[in-house]
Design goal:
There is one protein chain. It is built from 3 helices and 10 strands; from the N terminus they run E-H-E-E-E-H-E-H-E-E-E-E-E. By secondary structure, it is an alpha+beta fold. The longest helix has 13 residues.
Length: about 140
Amino acid sequence: MQQQLSVVTLGARELARSRRFYAEGFGWSPVFENEEIIFYQMNGFVLGTWLRDALAADMHRNDIAVPGAYSLAHNVTSREEVHAAIDRLSRFGGRIVRPADEPPHGGLRGYVADPDEHMWEIAWNPAWSIDARGHVTFGL
């Protein structure tokens, strides 16, 4: 099976709050939206925010755990961008969960929760390269 990720869909209580965080906070442009879902074209996959009840119904679930045991990451190309991104996201509905600090392996990272408590790690890792299209390459 091909090693790929096609779509990540996050449950949202209110699309307007979610849209503010992603479109204004991150600066991402939706490629599709209606009253239930918003899609963002990313670098090689699609991110969706879907009303939580509609997502649960689509999965035939009565409940969706929030927050979950995962984090999403947004890597940047410099230490300064970590602080700037965390500050910007907090102005557009994000909640700073962990201010930026240096992990044992080096670099700089902090955590921000979106309005639905999905955790985003904002990170700079000097060993990882990011190309002009935003593709991250794992490095040690």
